[in-house]
Backbone:
């Protein structure tokens, strides 16, 4: 049974050059088991509210996916053993979310006001 999830990843900014390969790895893991990626947003480097592992900034990625529990378990395991991911949050949602997140809407407004 496929369920909908929203995932936020906070990645060590020192490894930002590896983010594309990390996203590709997660994308392949999702798609191999017939999962669906409804939304993938790159929020970029942002300041943290408080230091985590002596870091003051993190690189944020948002995913909205539809996967089986088995695939979700594989993803969780991959996040847990990746030292570059300083935090991750997985939330079960009722339906697919495809609209831009409020974070991206603010980013779009900022880019138009220049």
Residues:
């Amino acid at each position: 049974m496929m369920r909908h999830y929203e995932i936020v990843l906070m990645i060590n900014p020192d490894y930002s050059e590896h983010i594309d390969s990390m996203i590709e790895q997660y994308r392949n893991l999702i798609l191999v088991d017939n999962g669906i990626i409804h939304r993938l947003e790159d929020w970029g480097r942002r300041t943290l509210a408080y230091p985590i592992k002596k870091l003051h900034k993190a690189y944020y990625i948002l995913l909205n996916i539809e996967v089986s529990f088995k695939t979700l378990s594989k993803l969780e395991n991959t996040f847990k053993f990746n030292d570059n991911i300083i935090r991750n949050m997985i939330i079960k949602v009722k339906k697919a979310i495809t609209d831009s997140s409020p974070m991206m809407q603010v980013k779009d407004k900022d880019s138009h006001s220049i």
